[in-house]
Amino acid sequence: MYGRRASQLLKEVDSCEAGQLVPFNSDVFDQVIRECNEHNTQFQSLIRKMVEQNLDIETTRNDDHYGAAVHHLSLLRNKRCLMAYMYNRAEVIQSFRWKIGPVLPHEIQEKLHFSEKEYFKNHSAAIKSYMSEMDIDLTVDMVPPKDPYIQVRVLEDIGEVSLGDHSISLTKNSLHFLRRTDTEQFISQGLMEEFLE
Amino acid sequence: MLWSSGELSSASRSSAAPSFEKVTYSANGPETKAQNTSFSLARPTTTQPPTPSRAAPSPPAGVLAAAAPNLRVDLPPLAGRRRHHLGVCQLLMSSWEDDDSAAAAAAAASTDVELLKRAWRNEKASPEILRFDSPLVSRVREQIQLLEETLDDFGESGVDDLVVSLYQMDLDRTLFLLRSYLRLRLQKIEKYMMHISKSEDLLSRLSQQEQRFAKSCTEMMEKHLEQSVLSKLPYGYDSVTRQSLSSTEDDMVPEPQLDTFVFCKTKSDVGAFQLDDIGEEVVDLVADDLYVLRYKSIKGLVESGQIDLI
Question: In what residue span(s) does the GINS subunit domain sit (chain A) (predicted)?
Fold first, then answer.
């Protein structure tokens, strides 16, 4: 059935948990692209056949016309599916910039198409240039602040860090009571977590 | 469908809003410098409601006593009747009964932080991007800087830690509000970049930096789609915005749903207001009422500031 493979791609995106990404399915993607080109060849040959029979392609309503229409519409559907697939993935990739940061971990990198990696990089750069133009860091303060200080647990050895007027040693599994603004970058990098009793 | 960064979801909207109620601290202990500072980030011209008899002997107690009574929730609990009128669900609210608190509320509503909060809430609830208020944002940023300097001074002069942390909290909240506002707008631009960059009217609502962001975003997205999909499709089917050559207009651009319903609150009496083009649905908009209406029909009122989205 025409268009089935393309809808498979979208089902993959849809069944995936919101905000997550499945690996780029290049097999099916390429198959759909081939299908598109096949549709186009068929479409062209049907049109050519009508022209050879000296029929007006605008007004004639014969078998070949409807055949061509089916190919045209299948191609459109495939195109829409491919675009939706890429676009929805791009939206998730955009959200990674806000949730994870400018560098994607290896396991996400693996799931991306090469063009998507490039897109992520360019998109991060655009956000970065906006932030430097505005002179404000928008990647911190993602949740409304409740208290200026929070208790954190250090997950990895970070070493000596200077915070404002004093420096502290952040060793693995130690607990600290710090200013929320100082901890945010460590938390987003996964080096610390908020300690909730 | 896959949009999930949270900023645009209504869930985070309700959880975020109440935690940033404005706190009017008046640290009027004689030992502190606080009394000289416009701490509540009020516009310089705005006079704060007087906080009588809250001067306490020690600064911390004074701060706390002053802070607590002024913590207020914007919306009084929904009370009274519900009226169904022409398919419009209208929720009536009890108005402020206490004159004193009403006056305080009016004064609080005119501070820049309050204005920013309103802009932020409107932006959060509206399906499309609203006009960027650059004078407001630059005023708020000035005040943030002022507060940061004040905090630095405090650090040097050894002001009580509790006072400092209250100031810090106020600063943090304001900073969050500002960041969240700018972030929300960027995420809206990301979502509707092609739609926005097509229309002069929408582009003019953005700040210059946002316009640049929208432009580079659109270029990048087009390039990405071009090299991953479109370049592999046959001739005639390779446009980003149109399905094929036979489309006469752009039919593949994601647009915001302006038909969606929004919760809104009137600020003043608007009177009989026509919801549709043909005048079949007219609703009487009374001051300080809550309504659930289609965004499209009240768009003009939101833009002119007669109604707030919540």
Answer: 49-134
Residue A58 covered by a domain: yes
B110: nearest Cα among B149, B132, B136: B136
Q: Which segments of chain A are extended strands (E)? A: 149-154, 159-163, 166-170, 175-179, 192-194
pTM score = 0.70
Supply A63's token pair: 């078998």
Contact between B243 and A123 using a beta-carbon 8 Å cutoff: no
Q: For chain A, what is the domain count?
A: 2
Residues of chain A neighbouring B223 (CB-CB closer than 8 A): 119, 122
Q: Report the phi/psi class of residue B127: left, alpha or beta, with left for phi > 0 and alpha for psi in -120 to 50.
A: alpha
Spatial distance between the Cα atoms of B185 and B208, rounded to a whole number of angstroms: 13
A56 assigned to some structural domain: yes
Of the residues A122, A177, A188, the best mutation for testing chain B's interface (the one with the most B CB atoms within 10 Å of its CB) is A122
Starting at the edge strand that comes first in sequence, how are the strands of the sheet with B88-93 ordered? Answer: B78-85, B88-93, B290-294, B261-266, B307-309
Question: Is residue A141, in this structure, part of any structural domain at all?
Answer: no
β-strand partners of B261? B294
- A144 occurs within a structural domain: no
With contact defined as beta carbons under 8 Å apart, do B138 and B172 qualify?
Answer: no
Specify whether the CB–CB gap between A163 and A183 falls below 8 A. no
The range of the structural domain enclosing residue A174 comes to: 149-194
Q: Judge if A170 and A93 occupy the same domain.
A: no
Residues A50-108: tens digit of each pLDDT: 888 877 777 777 888 888 888 888 888 888 888 888 888 888 888 888 888 788 888 88
Same domain for A126 and A155: no
Domain boundaries along the sequence of chain B = 10-192+256-309
Mutate to test the interface with A, among B117, B224, B239 (most CBs of A within 10 A): B224
Shared domain check, A101 and A155: no
Per CB-CB distance under 8 Å, the chain A contacts of B179 are 136-138, 140-141
Tokens 């489309």 correspond to what residue? B247
With an 8 Å Cβ cutoff, is A17 touching chain B?
no
Would the ipTM clear 0.85, i.e. be above it? no
Same domain as A78, residue A39 = yes
